[in-house]
């Protein structure tokens, strides 16, 4: 005769089994590039077992750890915070750590490739330097003049709200590398730099808004934007990137911010 405690445990185990997903076999089709081996990039297929609730990043780890240690990609936090694992997954820019297998049709091969518009160094790793240079160029820090205040710089809730959306940027480059203008010549500052300029231009405590606007009034600045909304669609933080760019354009015309 089984005890009530044992029955309870077995019922709990049954319930856990019912909610657990079955592993499925998926194919990752990865664009590989190693300049030490060939000047051409090639697609390579890997088959692996994954729980559909796992993420593309988990699949990449499994391939690297169990099948091919040379597979090269960036990642750090694995939780959508550091911005280091933006890649093109099934043709769309996404964070590998935020993309669940079940959400991207695992019945077909899942394509994974480096983001576009930046030089590929190896496999899924691109040279981020031009991206970060554009970021540095817009002075992404608070600029104030005069004497240091003796107490904190105060700001109303309404004034803080003006740039709340653009504070969420994690510099993943998903927006900039989804922009056709950026693909064309790579000189355009790109959406991410403008988002980070917006964050300070509309900060009531900052005193370098005019300077940032002049930087973005350049031939490679905001006027290159063709409002395709690719950037807004690509942003894993849900930032209204195109709207921020429009607000910077308007501030350039009206000089009100
Ligand atoms: S605006 Fe969004 S997509 Fe662009 S770098 Fe920031 S977080 Fe990434
Ligand atoms: S690994 Fe940090 S955002 Fe994906």
From TrEMBL:
Residues 159-181 form the 4Fe-4S ferredoxin-type domain. Keywords: 2Fe-2S, 3Fe-4S, 4Fe-4S, Iron, Iron-sulfur, Metal-binding, Oxidoreductase, Tricarboxylic acid cycle. It holds the Pfam family Fer2_3. It catalyses: a menaquinone + succinate = a menaquinol + fumarate. GO terms for molecular function: 2 iron, 2 sulfur cluster binding; 3 iron, 4 sulfur cluster binding; 4 iron, 4 sulfur cluster binding; electron transfer activity; metal ion binding; succinate dehydrogenase (quinone) activity. Binds 1 [4Fe-4S] cluster. The keyword Kinase does not apply. Residues 24-118 form the 2Fe-2S ferredoxin-type domain. Its EC number is 1.3.5.1. It is an enzyme of class 1 (oxidoreductase). Its cofactor is [4Fe-4S] cluster; [2Fe-2S] cluster; [3Fe-4S] cluster. PROSITE patterns: 2FE2S_FER_2 (PS51085), 4FE4S_FER_1 (PS00198), 4FE4S_FER_2 (PS51379). GO terms for biological process: respiratory electron transport chain; tricarboxylic acid cycle. Pathway: Carbohydrate metabolism; tricarboxylic acid cycle. The keyword Metal-binding applies. InterPro entries: 2Fe-2S_ferredoxin-like_sf (IPR036010), 2Fe-2S_ferredoxin-type (IPR001041), 4Fe4S_Fe-S-bd (IPR017896), 4Fe4S_Fe_S_CS (IPR017900), Beta-grasp_dom_sf (IPR012675), Helical_ferredxn (IPR009051), SDH/FRD_Iron-Sulfur (IPR050573), Succ_DH/fum_Rdtase_Fe-S (IPR004489). CDD domains: fer2. NCBIfam families: dhsB, PRK05950.1. Belongs to the succinate dehydrogenase/fumarate reductase iron-sulfur protein family. This is Fumarate reductase iron-sulfur subunit.
């Amino acid at each position: 005769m089984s005890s009530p405690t044992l029955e309870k445990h077995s019922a709990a185990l049954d319930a856990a089994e019912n909610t657990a997903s079955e592993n499925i076999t998926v194919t990752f089709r990865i664009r590989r590039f190693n300049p030490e081996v060939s000047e051409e990039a090639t697609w390579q297929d890997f088959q692996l077992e994954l729980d559909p609730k796992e993420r593309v990043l988990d699949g990449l780890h499994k391939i690297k750890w169990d099948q091919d240690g040379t597979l090269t990609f960036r990642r750090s936090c694995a939780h959508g915070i550091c911005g280091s694992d933006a890649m093109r997954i099934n043709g769309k820019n996404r964070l590998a750590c935020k993309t669940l297998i079940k959400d991207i049709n695992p019945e077909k091969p899942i394509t994974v490739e480096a983001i576009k518009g930046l030089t590929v160094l190896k496999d899924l790793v691109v040279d981020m330097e031009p991206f970060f240079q554009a970021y540095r160029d817009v002075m992404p820090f608070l600029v104030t003049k005069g004497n240091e205040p003796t107490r904190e710089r105060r700001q109303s809730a309404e004034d803080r709200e003006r740039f709340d959306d653009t504070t969420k940027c994690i510099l993943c480059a998903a927006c900039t590398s989804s922009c056709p203008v950026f693909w064309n010549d790579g000189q355009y500052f790109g959406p991410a730099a403008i988002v980070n300029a917006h964050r300070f231009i509309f900060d009531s405590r900052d005193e370098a808004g005019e300077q940032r606007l002049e930087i973005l009034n350049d031939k490679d600045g905001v006027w290159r934007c063709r409002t395709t909304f690719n950037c807004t669609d690509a942003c894993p933080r849900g930032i209204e990137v195109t709207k921020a760019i429009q607000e910077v354009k308007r501030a350039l015309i009206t000089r009100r911010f």
